[in-house]
Amino acid sequence: MSNNEHRFHGRIIESLTVDFWNTIAHDTTFEERKELRRNRVYDWLTSHNIEISREAAFAMMDEYSKLWHETWRLKQRTLTSLEAADWVLEKHPVADEGARESLAKVIDSVLLDVPPVPVDGVQDALKELAAEFPLALICDTGLSGGTSIDKLLDQWGLLDLFPVRIYSEDLGVSKPHSRMFLTAAEKLDIPYHRIVHIGDLDPTDIFGAKNLGMGAIRFDGATDEAACKPCSMADDILKSWSEITSLLLAGKEEVA
Asked: What is the pLDDT of residue 3?
């Protein structure tokens, strides 16, 4: 860490928190993962002597996907792979010991088989920023959880840059719930009003951060169609990680 003081729109900042999906990871493989996960759940069920058609298995997983998004949007909570396994097994019971954990692993592991790709420039940018700020990851997890995301970050050479990683599956709430951001601030041991959050979604990342009084940058570099700019609470809306580093490091002042 440097001995410099950093300012962002006039305020002193001491740390950054960063979203994962479409901020660090460009999620170009979602549909491929969805297809693979549906096939693997079907294969798992038939291998455990469950009589079900592929079409019915696919429809079941599509129904669960809808439930996942409704829960995330309306209840500020992300359902886990274990909850997905429970949901499937309630409809198609399997008596085998360890069936729940086995099916959950099948559902979760798809992320590493069909991974997203790092956003352009994010690896160099985060390494540069980590030399100036402590970083924390704040991530709403999907059917693949924090363990799989940690493995991806490690493969991309980024895991060690985030000594603090906050996953919604661990807290039982998701962004914009204040607990996601406050837990990160607590673990960083930095006042939340001296933290800037970087993320791509106004309803979760930007609202959650600004509602607490944190700084917020909306990253539009991994979206085909940008959301409404005048409607955003973000302090800045940027389309590249080079713009983000330039902005955040431009306010550096030497401390006597």
From this structure: 62
Count CB neighbours of 19 within 10 A.
25
Q: pTM (2 decimals)?
A: 0.93
Q: Is cis: bond before 134, omega within 30 of 0?
A: no
Exposure letters 133-167 (e unless 16+ CB within 10 A, then b): bbbbbbbbbbbbbbebbbbbbeebebbebbebbbb
Q: Are 121 and 127 in contact (CB under 8 A)?
A: no
Beta carbons of 135 and 18 less than 8 angstroms apart = yes
Predicted local distance difference test score (pLDDT) of residue 89: 97
Q: What's residue 254's pLDDT?
A: 56
Low-confidence residues of the chain, pLDDT below 70? 1-3, 225-226, 251, 253-256
How do residues 162-200 score in pLDDT, each as one tens digit? Answer: 999 999 999 999 999 999 999 999 999 999 999 999 999
With the C-alpha atoms ordered 138, 144, 148, 149, is the resulting torsion angle positive or negative?
Answer: negative
What is the C-alpha separation between 211 and 170, in angstroms, rounded? 22
Rg for the chain, CA atoms, rounded? 20
Match domain 4-27+117-254 to its CATH number in 3.60.15.10, 3.40.50.1000, 3.30.980.10, 3.90.180.10: 3.40.50.1000
CA 115, CA 201: separation in Å to the nearest integer? Answer: 21
In angstroms, the CA 138 to CA 216 distance is 13
For 55, residues 6+ apart whose C-beta sits below 8 A from its C-beta are none
